[in-house]
Design a protein that fits this description.
The protein is α/β, with parallel strands linked by helices. It folds into 3 domains: 154 residues, Nucleotidyltransferase, domain 5 (2-Layer Sandwich); 146 residues, Nucleotidyltransferase, domain 5, CATH 3.30.420; 196 residues, Alpha-Beta Complex (DHBP synthase). The chain is 35% helix and 19% strand. The strands form 4 sheets. Strands 13-21-20-14-15-19-16-18-17 form a 9-stranded mixed sheet, sandwiched between helices. A 5-stranded mixed sheet has the order 3-2-1-4-5. A hairpin with a 4-residue loop joins strand 9 and strand 10. The structure holds fe (ii) ion.
Length: 558
C-alpha cells in the first residue's frame, strides 16, 4: 500500500510518500519552484498543490499515479467549517477559503489523472503534526505537544500516543496561538511574518525585563491558564493598533534596529519559554510518560526547545527535522496508513535526508552546460577541510537533500569557526543576512560535550533544533559560531547519520584541533539549492570559494 501525503493548506507546501508503511521520500515544493515556503499563505490558495514535489515522490519511488492507494491531505475542511466562528475574521475571506478547500479534491484528481473517491483522506492538521513527530521518533509511547499558528482552528494540541494510536487530549483554539504572536511581532519589528528566527536571534541582545509585564498581558501561561489575548493578533496584517499603543510605532523594514526592538524580542522569547513550559507540564499531567514529541512551527524555536529539554519534565524529547507545516505531509500519510492498514508503519527512522539525490552524470552535465571544467577530487572531505582551514567558504553538496528548513551537511555552506570575521565574510560574500543573526556550528558527536553543554544527546540534536551554551573556556576558540548570549544552535554529526560530512569535520579536526565547522544553508536569500544547476547558479553569483558536488569540484578561479 502506497500513501501519498500532501500539505498545501497554508505554506511550506510539501509531499511525502509511504511505501508499505515505510517513509521513502519527502520534499518541499520551494526547492523546485524556487519560491520561499512554496507559496504565501492566503485564503484563496489552499488548493495550489505542491505539484513538482508530488511528481518527484512518484518518480523517486518508481510509481505512477495508479499505484497510489491512498492520498492524505493535512487539513480537515469539515472540522474547520464546524469550529469557525464569524467574529474571528472577515466571513467573506472564510467563504473564499471554503471554496478553495472544496477544490482540493479536484486539484489532486486532476494531477493524478484519476478519481479518488473514498481514497482521499482529510487529516486534522494537528493530528498530522503529531504523527510527523511520533512515528519517526524512537518511542513506542509518548506525550505529544503541537504548537503552531493555526490548524483548522487550533493553535495547540496535547495528545497521547500508544503503539500506533494517537489521541488528542486537549486542544487550544484560536486565538490561543503562540505562532500567531510570533508572526505579529515579526511584522511589527520590520521583518516578514515568516521571520520568527530573526526575532529569536535578536532576543539575545535584549533585556526581557523591560517589556515583561506587557508580554504578560499578551500571553498568559501558568499552572491553570494558558491563552493569548486576541486584541493583539489581528489577522494577517490587519494592523498593529494594540501593539502600537503598548510599544510605540512599528519598525520599518529598513530602519535601524534599536535597543527597544531587541528588548521586545527578549520579552517575547521569555514569554514563549514560559508558555511552552506550562504546556509541557500540562501534557505531562495528562499523559505521564517519559517521552515527549514536539511539533508545529513553534518547535523550530531552538531556545525554547532547550528550555523544555532542560526542564526535565520528560526524560526524552524528540522533534522531527521538519516540525513546521511541511512535516504534516509525512504525518498525514502515517495517520492514514494507521487508519487503513493492519500492519503498523515503520517506526523510529528519523533521517532528514529524504529529498532528491543526483547522479554523477547529472552533476557533470550541469557543470559542463554552465561552461565550467569539472575537476575530480580523490578525497573531497580532506580537500574541502583544507580549504575551510585556509579561510575559504566551501559549498558542500552531496546525496539526498534535507527535509526541513535547516541544511544538515548535504546542501550546506561551510566555513572556519575560529575566525572572528567569518560571520561578516559569509554575509558579505554570500548570505546577505542581518549581522545580528548567528551562524550555527556542526560538531563531531564524539566531541560535542567538550565544546557545548549538550546534556543527553538525542536524535533531534542532529537537526539543529537545540540551542546549547558554548563552554566558557572554548568561546574564544570558535568566535564565528558563538551567539551574543554565549549559546550556539548546534548540529551534532554522527558517523552513522552522515558519514561523509562526519569525515569532512574529522579532517578539519585533524588539521586544526577543532572538531567543528560553521554550517549555514547553501543559498543566498532564495530557498536552499536542490539540483546541481541551482548549486552552480548560487556558486556563480556569490563569493563562494569552492563548490564540491560529491567528488566533482569547482573553484572560483576555474
Ligand atoms: Fe501547522
Amino acid at each position: 500500500m502506497n500513501v501519498l501525503g500532501i500539505n498545501s493548506v497554508y505554506h511550506e507546501s510539501a509531499a511525502a510518500l509511504l511505501v508499505d508503511g515505510k517513509l521513502v521520500v519527502a520534499v518541499e515544493e520551494e526547492r523546485f519552484n524556487r519560491i520561499k515556503h512554496g507559496k504565501q499563505a492566503e485564503f484563496d490558495n489552499p488548493h495550489q498543490l505542491p505539484e513538482r514535489a508530488i511528481r518527484h515522490c512518484l518518480n523517486a519511488a518508481g510509481l505512477t499515479a495508479r499505484d497510489i492507494g491512498r492520498v492524505a491531505y493535512s487539513f480537515d475542511a469539515k472540522m474547520r467549517r464546524k469550529q469557525y466562528r464569524a467574529e474571528w475574521w472577515d466571513p467573506r475571506l472564510e467563504e473564499t477559503f471554503r471554496l478553495r478547500l472544496g477544490q482540493v479534491r479536484g486539484a489532486i484528481e486532476d494531477l493524478l489523472g484519476r478519481s479518488l473517491g473514498p481514497k482521499l483522506h482529510l487529516v486534522p492538521h494537528h493530528m498530522a503534526h503529531a504523527a510527523s513527530a511520533y512515528f519517526p521518533s524512537p518511542f513506542d509511547r509518548a506525550a505529544i505537544l503541537t504548537i503552531d499558528g493555526i490548524g483548522e482552528t487550533a493553535g495547540s494540541t496535547l495528545a497521547k500516543a500508544v503503539g500506533t494510536r494517537i489521541q488528542s487530549v486537549e486542544t487550544f483554539e484560536y486565538p490561543h496561538s503562540i505562532g500567531f504572536v510570533w508572526e505579529v511581532f515579526s511584522g511589527y519589528l520590520g521583518f516578514s511574518h515568516y521571520d520568527a528566527s530573526k526575532v529569536m536571534g535578536l532576543a539575545a541582545y535584549g533585556d526581557p525585563e523591560i517589556f515583561r509585564e506587557q508580554l504578560r498581558s499578551i500571553v498568559r501561561a501558568d499552572e491553570v491558564n494558558y491563552g493569548v489575548n486576541r486584541e493583539f493578533l489581528g489577522f494577517h496584517g490587519s494592523g498593529f493598533a494594540r501593539m502600537e499603543a503598548m510599544f510605540g510605532p512599528p519598525r520599518e523594514s529598513n530602519a535601524e534596529i534599536l535597543p527597544r526592538h531587541a528588548d521586545m524580542a527578549a520579552a517575547l522569547q521569555e514569554a514563549t519559554d514560559a508558555a511552552v513550559t506550562a504546556l509541557v507540564r500540562r501534557v505531562k499531567r495528562r499523559v505521564p510518560f517519559d517521552n515527549l514529541c514536539l511539533a508545529g512551527g513553534v518547535a523550530l524555536n531552538c531556545v525554547t526547545n532547550d528550555v523544555v529539554r532542560r526542564s526535565g519534565e520528560f526524560a526524552n524529547v524528540f522533534i522531527p527535522s521538519a516540525p513546521h507545516d511541511a512535516g504534516t505531509a509525512i504525518g498525514a500519510a502515517f495517520a492514514v496508513h494507521c487508519a487503513t492498514q493492519k500492519r503498523p508503519p515503520e517506526r523510529g527512522k528519523s533521517t532528514p535526508y529524504l529529498g532528491p539525490a543526483f547522479k554523477r552524470s547529472d552533476i557533470l552535465a550541469a557543470v559542463k552546460s554552465a561552461g565550467f571544467a569539472a575537476r575530480r577530487s580523490k578525497s573531497p572531505a580532506r580537500d574541502a577541510a583544507n580549504l575551510i582551514a585556509d579561510g575559504k567558504i566551501v559549498a558542500w553538496f552531496q546525496g539526498r537533500m534535507e527535509f526541513g528548513p535547516r541544511a544538515l551537511g548535504n546542501r550546506s555552506l561551510l566555513a572556519d569557526p575560529r575566525r572572528p570575521d567569518m560571520r561578516d565574510i559569509l554575509n558579505q560574500k554570500v548570505k546577505h543576512r542581518e549581522d545580528f543573526r548567528p551562524f550555527a556550528p556542526s560538531v563531531l558527536a564524539e566531541h560535542a560535550e567538550e565544546w557545548f553543554e549538550v546534556g543527553t544527546q538525542t536524535a533531534s540534536h542532529e537537526f539543529m533544533l537545540f540551542a546549547c551554551a558554548v563552554r566558557d573556556d572554548r568561546r574564544d576558540l570558535i568566535p564565528a559560531v558563538v551567539h551574543k548570549d554565549g549559546s550556539a544552535r548546534v548540529q551534532i554529526v554522527s558517523r552513522t547519520s552522515n558519514p561523509r560530512f562526519h569525515e569532512l569535520i574529522s579532517c578539519f579536526f585533524a588539521k586544526t584541533g577543532v572538531p567543528i565547522v560553521v554550517n549555514t544553508s547553501f543559498n543566498d536569500s532564495e530557498p536552499i539549492v536542490c539540483a546541481p544547476t541551482d548549486a552552480i547558479v548560487t556558486f556563480r553569483k556569490s563569493g563562494i570559494d569552492a563548490l564540491f558536488m560529491d567528488d566533482v569540484f569547482l573553484t572560483a578561479q576555474a
